[in-house]
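User: structure tokens for this one?
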Amino acid sequence: MSADDGIYILETGISKKEYRVAHLQAIENIAYDKDAPDFEWCNQSGSINKNHDFRTCPSCRARQKKFHSDDPNVHIRNARDMWGNCQVFTTEADAMHKAMELYRECCICEYGIQTIAIERDF
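Assistant:
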């Protein structure tokens, strides 16, 4: 059984760095773009059709954009939901101390302690 969880340190800020720490599951949701248009599922993306090129398939590209956005504005919007109620730390050392505290309290922590940096103000 997968816990799909970890202790995540969020590093944000352009001129002044801030850190937030949370025990989260499904961290990949940080890249989900709820505003990207819906799309038709490609009926070949999961098949063994060796001629199918997901990089040029319009459906596969739309799916990639919706579920795996590389836009930092999407990431910071989702991060505000995920870390919104967390204490703000001004040093990475203080954030790591908090992360270690949370880690010791966890029964299961599949991905350990990870840092996610987004070059945007929180």
